[in-house]
Every structure is written in structure tokens, then in C-alpha cells.
Amino acid sequence: MLNIRNFTFNLFQEVCTLLWDDTLEGAIVDPGCLGEAECSRLTDYVRDNGIRIKMILLTHGHFDHIYGVPAMVAEYGVPVYMNPADKVLLENNHLLSGVFGMPDAPRDFATKDIKEGDRLSFGKTEFEVIETPGHTPGCVCFYDRADKLLISGDTLFAGSIGRTDSAWGDYDKEIVSIMDKIMGLDGDVAVIPGHGPKTDIAYERTHNPFLQPFNEPDDDLDWDGEGISIDGDFQ
């Protein structure tokens, strides 16, 4: 069984997701924790539950999703996986964070490249990399086919999509990514976005106003979350 604990971090209320299965091996997705107090919330939970972190996964390189990466690498000594197309963001995050009055984000940590179709595993759990450029050039989603779970980052939100009006964003690419790569998944796939509440594919097909011009109605709206346990700072 896959266990999930969500944390919301920094002023942008970024959703960091901690994943682990019954082997107690796990992964951290988008550690946006800013400062010692926020990072301790995450590391204390990992320690108290005996979870062995094996990797850090980044859906994209925006500053609010990576603040805590150096602290997590120092704590666990594990690789950080990111699509290389977002390295331009690591080099230029200070330009965007400054606009919002946020601290500069780290840029000196090492990453391992991931691409479409790559598979990343811990314990008995495997996630597939789905490239979804648009919000950023190197945006990806992480898909656990067995547990019917999609970590969508800032590509797809509950009732919305990631903004594309900042540097390196591309609205047309984002819509193509969502329609070609995400909306074809089973309706009962749970979605954990990078901000806001969880959702599922079937609901977004029929209720997301940004996708309505492209979608046909779908009656598959009865997902009950069977097979995974989700806990955290949002419902």
C-alpha cells in the first residue's frame, strides 16, 4: 500500500508530497520548505515514522518548489531528479522570486536528468515520468500506474492549470501536454497538484473550465481513493 503525506510550505502554499510504501522506503516530491522550521516538519515526520528516503523528485524548477532541496540532500544524501530543460530556471529563479518579494532559491545542487518514460522506483513502488512542458519547459508529472496516482506539480490543478505568463511559460504547449498526456489516463486516477486540493482525472475532464473546450463529458466520477492512503495539510 502506498502512503502519502502532504505538507504545504512557504508563502506560496506549495504542496510537498512525501511517499512511502510498506517497505518504509520513500521519496520526497518538491521539497519547497523554506527555513529550518519548515524543513524540520518534514524531516521530523520522516524520522518519527521510520521512513528511509531514497530520492528527491522535482516536478519543475520554480523557486517555491525547491527551497528545501539542499537541506534534504544534506539530511539524506540521495539523488535529485529533474528534467534538464528546467536547468534554465535554476540559473534564473532569482529574477522571478524577486518579483514576488521571496528569497532567492538555491541553484548549486546537483541533479540527475529524467525524461519521458523513465521509471523511478523505491521499495515496491514505481513512478513513470511524463513530460508536460508548458508551465515551464521541463515540467513533468510522476505517475504511479499500479496505485492510480498522478503527482501533477503545476501542470494541472483542481479546476485550473498552471500559469504560463511568466518567463519560459507556453500556454499552447501546456494545453497540448494536458490533453495528450494527462486526460487520457483512467478517470479514477487521483491527482495531487503542486498547489491546492487533490482531485481526479474524471472530475477535471468534466469540470475544469480551462479544459472544457477540448473535452467530452465523462461519467466516471466515482473514484473513492481505494488502494492509497492520503494525509496532510489539505483535503
Descriptive account of the structure:
The structure is a single chain. It contains five helices and 15 strands. The protein has helices at 36-48, 69-76, 87-99, 171-182, 201-207, and strands spanning 2-9, 14-20, 25-29, 52-57, 80-82, 112-113, 119-122, 125-131, 140-144, 149-153, 156-157, 160-161, 190-193, 199-200, 228-232. A seven-stranded mixed β-sheet has the order 6-5-4-3-2-1-15, with helices on one face. The chain has a six-stranded mixed β-sheet with strand order 7-8-9-10-13-14. The protein has a two-stranded antiparallel sheet with strand order 11-12. The longest helix is centred in the first third of the chain and has 13 residues, at 36-48. The protein is globular. Residues 219-228 have low confidence and may be disordered.
In brief, what are we looking at here?
The protein is built from five helices and 15 strands. It is of the alpha/beta class and 235 residues long.
Features:
about 240 residues; alpha/beta; Metallo-beta-lactamase, Chain A; seven-stranded mixed beta sheet; six-stranded mixed beta sheet; about 25% helix; about 30% strand
Kindly provide the name of the CATH class.
Answer: Alpha Beta
Distance between the termini: 20 Å
Portion of residues within helices: 10-25%
| Low-pLDDT regions | 219-228
Main sheet makeup: 7 strands, mixed
Class by SSE composition: alpha/beta
Overall form: globular
Q: How many H/I helical runs?
A: 5
| Beta strand count | 15
Estimated radius of gyration: 17 Å
Total individual domains: 1
CATH H-level superfamily? Ribonuclease Z/Hydroxyacylglutathione hydrolase-like
Strand proportion, as a percent range, falls in 25-35%
Question: What's the architecture in CATH terms?
Answer: 4-Layer Sandwich
The CATH topology turns out to be: Metallo-beta-lactamase, Chain A
Strand order of the largest sheet: 6-5-4-3-2-1-15
